[in-house]
Amino acid sequence: MCGQLGHVNSPVTVPQQIKLSDGLRVWDLSAGQSHSLLLADGDCVQPVLLYCGQQQEQTSAQSEKSQQGQRSCQRSPNRAESYTVRPSLLPFCMEMGYISSVCSGGQRCAVLADQNVMGFISAIHELASIERHFYCWLSSAKKLLLTPLRNKESVCPSLGEPCTHLFFSLCESFVRLSILIGRHSTSLSYFLLEVQSSDVTALPLLTHTEHFMDIYKEYCSSVGNFEVMGGFRSLQKLSLECLGSQQTVLAQLCADQSIGGDVDLVSVFYRPLQQLHQYSRVMLKLTACFDVLTAEYQFLHQGCNQFDSLSLSLLRKKKEAETTFLFWKSHSGKTTEVLRLPQRRVVCESSNRSLTLQNAGRFSNHWFILFNDTLVHTQGAIPSQSLFSTHHIYPLSCLWVKPVTEDSSGHYAIKITCPEESFTLVASTPQEKNKWLRSLNQAVDQVLGGAGQGSSPGLTAMARTAPYTFTGEGCFKDAQYTGAWLAGRLHGRGTMKWPDGRTYRGNFKKGQEEGYGECLIPNKVLNKPDSYQGQWRDGKIHGFGKYKYACGEVYEGCFCDGQRHGYGMLSSGKLAKNSSSVFIGQWVHDGKSGYGVYDDMTRGEKYMGLWLDEQRHGNAVVVTQCGVYYEGTFKDNKMCGPGLLVSDDDTALHGEFSDDWIVNGKGVLSLANGDCLEGQFTGEWTSGLKVVGTYTKPPPEEPENKERSSLHKVGQYLVPATQRWLCVFNECWSRLGCEAPGRGERAAAWDNIAVTITTARRQSIDLTRSQSKVLECLEFIPHHGDPVTTANYDNIRRYLSKACETPHHPLGWLVETLVTVYRMTYVGVGSNRRLLRQAVQELLAFLTHFYSIVRFLFPGLPEDGGIIPDPPASASEGEHNSNVAEQVVMVVSCSSLLLPQLLPRLYPPLFTLYCLQEEQEEALYWERVLRLNKQPDQSLLSFLGVQEKFWPVWMSILGDKKQIVSSSKDACFVSAVETLQLISTTFTPSDKLLIIQRTFEEMTQEGKPMLDGNFLWCMDDLLPLFLYVVLRA
């Protein structure tokens, strides 16, 4: 720069750089017609004002000052021949205060200055000044040192591969820090322009504290990693080659250090850490400008503490890096080099034999090195020569430290627990024990995310979450685990992944899979994994779960020690949605044993009976899609022995079977018309039978042969209803905590229910609002030990109703499973009309077993058909009721209590069987009903014989009573008809009788206008009218 707009005696057309004194940093300038003003940082905090341009010839100062508010003006000097090229300091600028901006125009100039109230303005200017100075230093270091070194071709070979990567990472973090400081210094300059109206809490240091701290931490970490790996030694040589004769550059960047060693270069890169102390110091000054109770003070005080803590923390990290570098320098060697990592810092080591292994051999050498991330145990070690034969690395994230109480042996011991082993360390003195104990606890605390400073000996977290890779032999060999720990053992939720592709996600307890978990097991043959979702115990599949096999089969049921055991359903087949076969029933040691239903969809047959070792064995029923019904005995997976076979047209054969559908032996064949064939039968039922016997055609008047009819009676070879589905009820007892039905603690059963419901609420995220409300109600344990009276009986009914609504409750699971097995048995091929009696007996057995569980939970309930007493009355009520001869009692049965929960869900298959059984009678009944319903009301009432006095009337607008019109339909006794229709919504006999009673009441109410006040129904009048209501309903 030379002159303004060419106003000089000898014009210069080429711009020239201003020459300033050392230590001056211009941060604002303004140009007038023939002069320039420059605002710069000087030796002190207060900015200085520089001037260059035309000068007055007079010796006396001819300047006019006018100060008004916070603004000051300086008239530019008159035009003269003298001209100042080099900016000179204006002495009177120190009297103007703290200038934040300059402005010029024409022959005049102005400055914006602020009064320093309570030191606030000076503190802000000091912060801006030190930040601009720091940015200038960063720019110089980048220009003079980093950029030449980075562009040098020999930097990679000289530093080596690891250090080269760290050096470039250091350069990137240095650039990010430089950008941050440059932006911050600029924002502070803009902040000064409106400092009077700005809020101090809007300072970038307070609004972006986390960003500042992250940048400084990243930079300090980069410098430390580079130093630990010995990069500065090679970098020092490169800097000497790169700078050449410009060795004074290092002196400029680090003026307070001498030249000639690694320390100088290290100190240059650690120089930015000093800026954090400057931030803290300036903010401490700013806090003195505000009252302690103000928000500004709180913000500034918090920021001051944060930057002060960060400064101390980074200085500690600097010292750790220096100590680690010296450790590797003094213990350099091939064996120790494998332990050297950029992020690893040494904490302490036992080369002075201050720590050894308990019960170690007399001539064995053990060297322990504690780093910030691992504890290293070397054997056969010679620390002075940095040699050792073997070493073990224990990650601190999975290391538990516990002091051992001193005993008579006088050992100062520390117990170390790891996931795969535990050992005891012995210190030489109590002081060494405390030193190592404190160092271990602090290092573990730091790894777990703590500050690492406040840990007391022996108080590191027992429960934690950390990753770990198993190396020892066992079921977890080479597996990678991420999850929760407790005192060195897997405990809580976690994920385990094996090298072969196995994966487990779920709960652990005491080092093994326990509770709910999901597992994937690869199948290399089919190139698809097996998957399991369900319960585990002691590291094995145990409890209820769902297993999907790679072949397409799906098993959902109970497991025991990794085997299918108890109730379960296996769907087989390769189709996506429909399986070719389904088995539901009891399993024993991974095989079908006990009662079960097998639906072979490919053959169109359904087997309902006993199993043994995966084979059909015992009494059973088989029905086919062709309507054939067979009941008999099975042996070795085939029909064997006596059996009854009934075809769809009621042809029945009772005889000896030797294989599936093959008859071989004596038998009796009864035809649908009553004819009978008795003799020796051989052959297959479907292809034809050979008979040697007698054909009998009974005369019409001959009475029925009871002996022969008993042979063809359905139900002779059925499995008793009480012995079916015992595995389902046993599973329910197990969920209540009982080893066998009725054998268990009632309080423990209720506790299990509460835990199950609470766990379901916490883990199920897809619950609706109504489901959550039901579970919330079920969390409260009812008063189960109180005697059951008519007063609290309804509370039990309401609780059972809610419990049966949700499968998370053991009773709700029982209801859901009973519905599943019932529908699997009697839906589809099982819809055979001859199974009606069996289905009814099975439902009654359900009620009996179900009621025993309910009575276990509520012991105050009476036996089936028992009486519930009224609650005890007070003395006055007792005297009042003493004259009453009879009292109303309540009879409780399993049907009245449990049918409302079961029958609505089981009604469809049961009603289907009933319709098939009574198909002809049902068709005839509905034909008559529909024919009669076509008649209008008047005709139907007359046909049924209803007297005309019971025919309803309707009121005209004028109030006249008129009889029903002959063509009207569905206009009589409407309320009674609608009431009777509600009978289809009830399921217990008592509830149905209540509907019928209400129907009669509605009929009476509607007939009152036609009857006398003292009228009583007689059956001759009531029955025809009720028939009308039934037909219309």
Automatic annotation (TrEMBL):
One GO process term, biological-process aspect: endosomal transport
Keywords linked to the UniProt accession: Guanine-nucleotide releasing factor, Repeat
InterPro entries listed in its UniProt record: Alsin, Alsin-like_PH, DBL_dom_sf, HA_Alsin, MORN, PH-like_dom_sf, PH_domain, RCC1/BLIP-II
Keyword Transcription: no
Repeat (RCC) residue spans along the chain: 1-42
Pfam families noted in UniProt: DH_Alsin, HA_Alsin, MORN, PH_alsin
One Gene Ontology cellular component annotation held by this UniProt entry: cytoplasm
SUPFAM superfamilies according to UniProt: DBL homology domain (DH-domain), Histone H3 K4-specific methyltransferase SET7/9 N-terminal domain, PH domain-like, VPS9 domain
Gene Ontology MF annotations: guanyl-nucleotide exchange factor activity; small GTPase binding
Domain PH: 350-445
Protein name per Swiss-Prot or TrEMBL: Alsin-like
Organism expressing this protein natively: Notothenia coriiceps
